[in-house]
Amino acid sequence: MENDLGNGIVEARLAAALVGLRGRLRPAEVETALRTAAFDTFGVLAGAHGAPGISALNDSLAALSGGAGRSQILLTGIRVDPGSAAMANGAAIHALDFDDQYDPARVHVFSVVLPAALATAETLGGVSLDRFFDALAIGAELFCRLGLACRDCLDTGWHPTTLLGAFAAAATSGTLLGLDERQMVSALGLAYSQISGTVQVIEDGVLAKRLGPGFAARSGLVAAHLAAATITGAQRFLSGKAGLFAQYRIEGDPALLTERLGEDWHLARLSLKPFPCCRCSHSLAAIAIDLHSEGLRPDDVVSGALGLSRTNHAVVGRPFAPESAENPGVHGQFCAAYAFARALSRGNLGPMDFTAAAVLSGSVALARGLKCTVETDFEPRALAPARVRLLMRSGETLTRLVERMPGAPDLPLSLAQLRAKFSACLGSVTDSHVEAFRLCLTEPEAGTGTAETVLAFRRLVTGYR
Questions:
Q1: Where are the alpha helices (DSSP H) in 199-305?
Q2: Coil, strand or helix at 370
Q3: Residue (of 177, 392, 182) closest to 301 by Cα position
Q4: What domains sit in the chain, N to C, each tagged with a CATH number?
Q5: Up-side HSE of residue 1: CA atoms within 13 Å toward CB?
Q6: β-pair partners for 392
Q7: pLDDT tens string 286-302
Q8: Three-point CA angle 339, 342, 344, nearest 5°
């Protein structure tokens, strides 16, 4: 593979492999994971109806589209151009930071590929669910593998979901559009011309963080449509002198992109989040919830140290200071001290725990007495491990260590937990309505298309919020 770098063979091989996956039967466990992730994603999208910035984004995109288009902003039902729909729906999915993650690569997959697929399918019309999920599977699998091939993105300041997502969206939309191998290379090359996304939005605590997947979804969709119209893109977008690996100083392994593609499905190992905040804080939140169940409360604690890996600490290790934050809710989503203190107080974490009002409420005074530390015995990029050391008012010291993260493949959410998560996002909705929507994705009636699924979701959102 190394000898192929720079001559376009890597890119041609990748495009051929992606086109070759179309219509292939996937193992049952892969199909279940794929459709379950879609169900989870529709739920977190529904939960974004009151999230800061989402209404303003939807209004702005609708105005730019002139109030006309073939694709829907799913929270409002307003039709706009496909790129705007992909952007709006991608941002909504990511707004609560409750969407899936492929943990080994730290990429949020369905917040990019699902909106790209939906907008493209609505543009085409008559797209069956089987064809829709075929495109989702191909785009999602590429995203997981590209994230693995570029594992140092986050450490070098890039936000991997935003940076790499456009490629996945291009593959997703390109599959629905029926691009051939040469067109697929161009679609991915055109996506490369548009990629962007740094962690500065996390550092600054701004609403642009939740727009990243939307930007990626829109860019990839546009790239695929341009390629279908015979516009050519960079052919050596990965391996060229100014390709992804060289230009972005990424120590990548392109062999991971096609190794056992179609046999080993990384998308089957997605994590579905139990808490609506940065994944880096989830192990700490789980420790806090366990301690709460044992009777511990914030008033029992004087101070504490929250131990994380180097990478996790860089993302969520900031001191709790919401009063000086640009957006207190975003600050809470990316502050491990807040997540731990709030979870210890309530015994759970849900969407309402990360509103500006909740973060500023003063009910989590303990968060100011918690300091995040880098644990030198943790692998520097490790996601799951976390260690807590608490100084108790009794004078005792309490220490807890976890090495598994809830929601991961080795500690997955149950079906009941996924249904409860969906209901929590949507608001007032019966279990039977949630289950009916899940079944329309996982066990659809013969002939069910994407349009019927979108209609069912819109009825769920408008009828039971």
A1: 200-204, 212-228, 244-247, 282-293
A2: strand
A3: 392
A4: 2-269 (1.10.4100.10), 279-402 (3.30.1330.120)
A5: 15
A6: 301
A7: 999 999 999 999 999 99
A8: 105
